[in-house]
Amino acid sequence: MEVELLEATDDPEELICSAARNDYASAFVGDQTFAETMDTVEGDSIRAKKETLIGHLLSHGHFGPFEHPQATFAIEGMSRSCMAQLTRHRHVSFDVQSMRYVAFDDVDPEAVGDGEMVVTPPSATDPDWIGRNQQSGTVDEETVEKREEVFRDSVQRSVEEYQRLLDLGMPPEDARFVLPIGTEVNVVMSMNARTLMHVADMRAAADAQWEIRGLTEEVLDYAAEWCPVTFEYYEEHMKHRKNRLAP
Ligand SMILES: Cc1cc2nc3c(=O)[nH]c(=O)nc-3n(C[C@H](O)[C@H](O)[C@H](O)COP(=O)(O)OP(=O)(O)OC[C@H]3O[C@@H](n4cnc5c(N)ncnc54)[C@H](O)[C@@H]3O)c2cc1C
């Protein structure tokens, strides 16, 4: 899976602070410079003042100002299983690659058997892999080789059968019913900084599945550059305290 930041609000933390200062100031933030807006906030630099105010907002549960900045990500090659988990989040906006208008008619089924087009879970190839909620433990090499063989045969066969159905004139939107849930999909998603923290609360957690956890950690890496004060505070004080932002 590949994750790219497509677009994000410029200076998101200036926006967060301006929105928050609006709540407590008699002056109109629209008529002020940012330095004037932050004048009475403790700190000897703009960065220090942002740290003071953002830390105060997050520690007191004043989350509204974090809904103003927005970021858009493009994700390539997520499984449809992972997409089903991700799209449960109702405050995230999505565009999902269509299986009605995009057909996998020119994919080589043998390449699918080699790992293209369908995401391979680590438990199919790594004998030492143990997912958090997985019932089974580690296995020997022979067992994992069998797992991989069954997995690869199965995904290859389903793509062969999908393409046979297309050859028989079945529309892609119906032929897709035989494709595996691990079939890759490209997604564009947008969310605000508050929702990003909430999704991270749930999906970067140890009991989330490996694929959505990996995705969320990558999104958090971008967030740390985009909104540094906020996500530094989040990492230090809030991460792994499940659903702090929206129980
Ligand atoms: C480890 C894990 C396992 C899961 N397993 C399953 C499963 O087996 N089956 C399954 O169906 N789902 C499962 N889920 C999905 C989970 O139940 C949620 O639907 C999903 O994570 C979306 O998160 P959210 O509920 O916080 O809602 P979001 O859509 O992200 O909304 C954010 C917050 O807004 C508020 N909110 C939004 N809509 C409403 C509303 N209508 N009413 C009240 N408050 C609202 C809530 O405070 C919510 O937390 C799982 C999630 C995780 C993390």
Describe the protein:
The protein is an alpha+beta fold and 247 residues long. The protein has 2 domains: 9-69 and 193-238, no CATH class; 100-130 and 137-173. Helix content is 46%, strand content 12%. The protein has helices at residues 12-24, 34-37, 46-60, 80-86, 109-113, 141-167, 172-175, 193-203, 210-226, 228-238, and strands at 2-8, 70-79, 93-96, 184-192. Helix 3 (46-60) packs across helix 10. It is elongated and about 70 Å long. It starts with a strand and ends in a 9-residue tail after the last helix. The mean pLDDT is 93. The structure holds flavin-adenine dinucleotide. Residues 88-91, 198, 202, 207-208, 246 line the site of flavin-adenine dinucleotide (FAD). Flavin-adenine dinucleotide (FAD) binds next to helix 8.
